[in-house]
Amino acid sequence: RSKREVELQDEMSAKGFGLGYLGGTLMQGIVFLILYLFEDPNGSEFQRLFVMSVSIGIVGFWWSGFSLYTFRYLKVRPGQPFPAGVNVICHGWRSTCQTLYLMLTYRDALLFVISYFLWSDALATLLNVAILILDDTSEKGSSVIFSAMLGTMAGLLGVFFFMKVQQWFHISNKAMLMAQLSVASVVSLAAGFGLVQAFGGFGFYLVLGPIMTMTGTLQANARSLYATLLIPGREVAMFSFYTILDKGSSLIGALVIGLVHTSTGNYYGVFWYTMIAFILAVVTLSFVDVKRGMRMAGKLEGNEGELAAVAPP
Fold first, then answer.
1. Residue 200, by phi and psi: left (phi above 0), alpha (psi -120 to 50) or beta?
2. Domain annotation covers residue 309
3. Range of 290's domain?
4. How far apart are CA 156 and CA 154, in angstroms?
5. What is the pLDDT of residues 248-271, one digit of tens each?
6. Going by fewer Cβ within 10 Å, which terminus of the chain is more open, N or C?
7. Domain with 151 in it: what CATH number?
8. Positive or negative CA dihedral for 104, 109, 112, 117?
């Protein structure tokens, strides 16, 4: 892998997330208009649910339309033939266990997924709590959608801004991840001390703003860095494992939110959990040696010097 290949991979990852945020912003704008025009705080329960149902239905059509287009025109890449006489479910779980065992033998890939497990859950938990707090303090659903739309727009701008910053200052994905996760831990600390309630509600945006600006870059850099540690021939299985971690970790955050709200009557204590998770993620990620991981995966053979600037330890 040449230096240009690594840079192109990073750029494609960032632009992919940027386009995703752009699509999300457009969809949220449509839903916001529907809620703003037809929502009536004094209306009946049926009217409220009907407007929400229409909005959710439009989202479903949006997903279906773009999914069909994608699957129609995406190039076919034939993989390995499915084993004959094998149960699909059993084969899937067997493959997952094999991938887990494989991860245990590759130290840097394992450290990375542990770090990702921690901060992915913390990030999802923080965003979920922000929405719950906003929902508690807002009388109209359109206000929640509008705030979410602002957050998505911040994520869109953040993806391209941080991509340029990385290119200008030659910052590695690992360094950028550690810096942004450190910022997220500081933001969580401030929120835990009450910033989210300060300045007449403006503190909420001081907390959510930096997080939403970094969200797209965090995901893009994480995927790009993880891709450099993948073992040739096992990319699909390892990325599937990555997705399982992403979705499965959310269960922990949901449990924390439920426990905190049940015991305190509010959600603010959850920020202490996210702060600790972000800090642990940074510490774990600091032990990842990218070049060693690439060497173990067979991706560093004779071009260490060329890649050193792109993938430092």
1. left
2. no
3. 3-73+92-300
4. 5
5. 667 788 899 999 999 998 888 999
6. C
7. 1.20.1250.20
8. negative
